[in-house]
């Protein structure tokens, strides 16, 4: 049964929690999806829409998770059962399922980044990056890197909240910030930088009338902020009541946006200075694993150095996100079955590793899992969380958001609750319908050919 709150693990420092939450948020989504979606979805208009959605949906929903998690001092399944009643416990299982599915393919992509980092360091990039990516993206090699990446993730989660997650975040996140900013500054010195910025940010306001751009932006916000699967909820369950939750959520959300935005300032100049826009093609991974490696290859020695840093940052971002995905699953099993951390992390981590063999062997399976779990399940979870925090647990969440908050942030709490009650549910319901359509179409396409 549920562990008692007195013996529960806890973060040792305020910064430790914030960097762990930022570590969950900042990941492949920032560098793999954001720049590409912005350039496709209206440039600066998309960025603006994204910031608005971060404020209106992202921060309130992150606070719904923070509030419920810290209140319950339990992982999602137990938290929902204890606070909201048995009928809500299944939502906890949806969260665990989402975490499990996302990590199983996320780790495969993370494995690619590790592989490319090694290539940059030891062999150099090939002259035919598209063929090369085709050869290594799926198959035994991809599976091997996925297994290795999962092993590291499991090790850190076994280390616990303070000795594993917090320590890794305090070490890795500052490093990531410095390298990303350094790389973007370097990219600004490239010849085609201007054309790259234009492609990335040229505002196309009519895109804002397109509901699909809204769906894409909202779904990007959920994925990038790690919302809708109980990750933020689980991390907050390791907090004492002195943490300023509204302020923490704001810092985490803007850190995440900042890294995504700067990633675009890095990726586009590199691609445009080598006229590789064709290689980006229709796929989001094309930019990272095909266009950038060809640019790095064309730069010779310098490209290899930059490549090492670039893929190192991707792998680090992926690792701190993977930790949070595994932690949701691990903490749920610990709380539900009274299992030790070590056993829960190893057993569930091994199960996820095995499931991940499927996306490691087949990139179409990977894409489908991303649609189902990375998009649809997160939006579904976010919708339920908004109803929970805005209606059913309103007073509990209000208490929790007030506790530890400074007077300024306490004054914002009623506004946040109003947004959770009246603004978030209708917007997310709208997005959910479009996402359901998209996901259904993707499932049909997958099985019909
Ligand atoms: N936010 C992570 C990223 O942008 C991915 C993630 C999604 C992590 C959901 C945890 C939960 O890469």
- What gross morphology would you assign? globular
| Alpha carbon gyration radius | 21 Å
Average residue pLDDT? 94
Low-pLDDT ranges: 1-5
How many structural domains in the coordinates? 1
Percent in strands: under 5%
Number of strands: 0
Structural class: mainly alpha
The ligands found in this model are: phenylalanine
* Topology pattern, helix = H, strand = E: HHHHHHHHHHHHHHHHHHHH
In DSSP terms (H or I, runs of 4 or more residues), the helix count works out at 20
CATH class equals Mainly Alpha
Largest sheet: none
Account of the 3D structure:
It is a single chain. Mean pLDDT is 94; it is low at 1-5. This protein has a single domain (14-448), classed as Amino acid/polyamine transporter I (Up-down Bundle). With 449 residues, it is mostly helical. It has helices spanning 14-25, 28-40, 44-72, 76-84, 89-123, 129-136, 140-158, 161-188, 193-201, 211-224, 231-236, 245-273, 277-280, 284-298, 301-337, 341-355, 357-361, 363-392, 394-402, 407-447. Phenylalanine is lined by residues 24-25, 27-30, 102, 223-224, 226, 229, 231, 321, 324-325.
